[in-house]
Amino acid sequence: MDEHIVRSYDEELKFIARCISEMGGQAERIVERSVSALIQSDWGLANSVVADDALLDAAQREVDERAIMMIAKRQPMAQDLREIIGAIRISSDLERIGDLGKNIAKRVIAVQDHTQPIRLVRGIEHLSELALDQLKDVLDAYASRDHQRAQSVRQNDEEIDAMYTSIFRELLTYMMEDPRNITACTHLLFSAKNIERIGDHATNIAETVYYIRTGQQMNLDRPKGDSTTSMVLPQTNDGEAVDEDR
User: Fold this and answer.
1) What residues contact 231, with CB distance under 8 A and at least 6 apart?
2) What CATH number is given to the structural domain containing 73?
3) Whole-angstrom Cα distance, residue 50 to residue 37?
4) What are the angstrom distances between the C-alpha of 184 and each of 10, 42, 102, 123?
5) What is the pTM of this model?
6) Structural domain for 147, as ranges
7) Considering the domain boundaries, does residue 238 fall inside one?
């Protein structure tokens, strides 16, 4: 392979890596702005988030097209092939993160006419901060191809799951206390689940970074702190559910 071809090949690999970096920044902004719109009941900001998600979708298609073209034209092997396959996987996760942010923004109009308990609002803000920290850390791990940092990101996902479980429980309690809370709390519940899923996609990216760098897959048993599937609210003697934390 002559010098010109090698240089051209390297530039193509760098271009894909830059695209992933730009997509990561876009995904972060979408999540940050969607949560701000939800907390502030800002429908204008929510509409802007929905529009921005289309840019992320377009970026993912470009990464896929470039990556497929490189595989067909260059027939890469070993780490180069892992870099390209990894870029396809990461772009897909980032596109899904954008979709989840858009879903949060779409719920703003449904909750803007309802009073939102301060404690719940703060809980969702904190959950989003944890998820965004995960996303930023894993994007840094990708930029430096730091597989050890990627492992750390994967371990931290358990904290997001535990926080989501706490919010889930509290939302159920509010709905049971006053049926008028059901509509707003249901939308907040879906929003919290979307944020928890953003953490899962950051974990997917961490696993891909590890694979790119080492050529090995991480252990399939992820640490999980989400216990909502087995949660049952405690009952009083008259059969009514109560909140143990009171």
Assistant:
1) 165, 168, 169
2) 1.20.58.220
3) 11
4) 51, 15, 18, 15
5) 0.85
6) 3-230
7) no
